[in-house]
TrEMBL record, chain A:
Key words, A-Z: Acyltransferase, Endoplasmic reticulum, Lipid metabolism, Membrane, Pyridoxal phosphate, Sphingolipid metabolism, Transferase, Transmembrane, Transmembrane helix
Keyword field contains Acyltransferase: yes
Record's keyword annotation contains Transport: no
Residue numbers spanned by region Disordered: 21-52
Protein name (record): serine C-palmitoyltransferase
Organism: Oryzias melastigma (Marine medaka)
Aminotransferase class I/classII large domain span: 163-522
EC assignment: 2.3.1.50
Names of the cofactor(s): pyridoxal 5'-phosphate
CDD domains: KBL_like (cd06454)
Basic residues bias locations: 21-41
Family listed: Belongs to the class-II pyridoxal-phosphate-dependent aminotransferase family.
Regions that span the bilayer: 60-81
From TrEMBL, chain B:
Transmembrane segments: 21-40
Signal peptide start and end residues: none
Broad class of where this protein is predominantly found: membrane
GO biological process: ceramide metabolic process; regulation of ceramide biosynthetic process
Family label: Belongs to the ORM family.
GO CC annotations, alphabetized: endoplasmic reticulum membrane
Task performed by this protein: Plays an essential role in the homeostatic regulation of sphingolipid de novo biosynthesis by modulating the activity of the serine palmitoyltransferase (SPT) in response to ceramide levels. When complexed to SPT, the binding of ceramides to its N-terminus stabilizes a conformation that block SPT substrate entry, hence preventing SPT catalytic activity. Through this mechanism, maintains ceramide levels at sufficient concentrations for the production of complex sphingolipids, but which prevents the accumulation of ceramides to levels that trigger apoptosis.
Full protein name: ORM1-like protein
Taxonomic source organism: Oryzias melastigma
InterPro entries per the UniProt record, alphabetical: ORMDL (IPR007203)
Subcellular location: Membrane
Amino acid sequence: MQNRNLNRLSVETSNRSRHFWRLNRNGRSRKSTHATSRQKHGAGNGVASRQNKQESFEQAPMYVAVCTYMGFGIVTLFGYFRDFLRAVGLEKCNLAQEREEQKDFVPLYQDFENFYTRNLYMRVRDNWNRPICSLPGPVFDLMERVSDDYNWTFRFTGRTIPNVINMGSYNYLGFAENNADFLKTVADKVQQYGAGVCSTRQEIGNLSIHEELEQLVANFLGVESAMTFGMGFATNSMNIPALVGKGCLILSDELNHTSLILGARLSGATIRVFKHNNMHSLEKMLKEAICCGQPRTHRAWRKILIMVEGIYSMEGSVVRLPEVIALKKKYKAHLYLDEAHSIGAVGATGRGVTELFNVNPADVDVMMGTFTKSFGASGGYIAGKKELVDYLRCHSHSAVYASAMSPPVTEQIIRAIKCIMGKDGTTEGKGRIRQLAENTRYFRARLKEMGFIIYGNDDSPVVPVLLYMPGKVVAFAREMLQRKIGVVVVGFPATPITEARARFCVSAAHTRAMLNQVLHHLNEVGDLLCLKFSRRKRPSSCSLSEETDVGLDS
Amino acid sequence: MNVGTAHSEVNPNTRVMNSRGMWLSYILSIGLLHLILLSIPFASVPVVWTLTNLIHNLCMYLLLHTVKGTPFQTPDQGKARLLTHWEQMDYGVQFTASRKFLTVTPIVLYLLTSFYTKYDRVHFVVNTVSLLTVLIPKLPQLHGVRIFGINKY
């Protein structure tokens, strides 16, 4: 008992001291990040060392954190005050309440559980769930809605807000489009197969178009075989229980998506969480798992599965794939790579993070991805060795119980993959990938120049701009909508309390003019709301200046 | 509105006290309270210090040891519904840095108050009782204990 407390003491003090000395997440001071990464990986050889320099998680000045807490404190005080007014009867209560006759029963739910929802979220919820009435391309139309009672109810005025620039949809390669030529094959397949499948894959729902898609996905990724599922979230939550079970260990990254966490919990395996993208933490856990085994019996684990994502959608950071693979090989664990946001969006030909790092796809045991983001469709896939995929065809919950992917969606994915691979005879796919990479680099460079704090890797098309304070989050979203730009903002408790952000998703369909318009408005809103917290020197286009940038970070 | 969408933290309440700048904000808010009380024209310095101590301990008791549960729905089906914020901190692990900090601060405030009230008897009794109400619930032996069923549900 004593030792355990001492260990926790040392861990906690090291956390505090890390905060005190303003070290970044990986335990290295920002000042010496460049130096140590060079020492570790040698002078600029592989992609890994280049990547270390490109990811940044700059921390805002301390006064920003203090103001954030002040903001939450004031909102909480007002929340208690309004609750008091509602209880006394001075303010109308718009919430659902228990019936009069049941007021003396044991309460159905705890009032405090809804505190945040009714006192903070309700006041600002016009920034979420906005109804869209066109396809989610680079520009879209929003339905105009107003509220007469401070967002408790909405009503539509009947007008639409046309041509709002869309910076929130996962439309990385621009396949969410309405082009009649491109969609002709999809229309033909609806004629041929119908709109729905009306069965599961294992019963009568295995269509020839599914086999064609799976063959194509396997070719695209460079693996032996693949299997597709109708829903991206369900791909994770239904297949992880088929792969691991009790007696297995899952090492999952801190910032993994809810679908991965749900799948891990449903499987019944033991879950341990390692710090985000931190190879030391992962290695320590692997060593401890192999030395100590299962918790009470100390038997060896049946399987150790490392779960990481290609691009983390809330941070924009990219997984350190070569290092994870080296660790996996050293300790004989398995790797599950979720490429929901990275497939089609990174890599020279859109093959995802395996191509970005020049890693052999056979090194990743289970490659998973979704078709929702870069392919403009819906659904997910799992790819890998033939034995693995054949096993999943029999044992996956989704194959047995969920209905198969519908034919027009399947054809949309087929035509998107053929376009990316160049199999349709045009260079449209290559052009889109190049356009996405250019847009990403340009957008990120301009944002850094303007002085915003953005997270993540320079190659990732997901750009989170940190806003920090709850009031600014809301003001930002409303102000951008007034300027006809649609953004997605997230705050506490979906993010840590001091890291509320706006998430921009760059698309290949955005033209330079659109990006310039967005950047121009961002600049104005940034000045208006004082959002430019970055304290780094504004980088020039020459990358050399970043290496000499050691002065300002302390 | 989803809790834990961007991270796998089941209950964000457990990490709030460890976040960046929270300790500084806490100290600053005590200072602000003290300044506000000092601005009252007819209050003498010992009374102001005793009032600071009392109000601080009262707020700490209410926020950390009375209010139970989370202000949002967590994905663990409400495991923390009957736990106060002190019991939720760091998932119940004792002697973490934040817990030690929150234990030491009332003690330091008490020492300062004793000094500035010149160890007067009445002030001493009042301040000591107030300090005890804030220190005793923090003992690890009282984790999850509800005396006489007060604040149980």
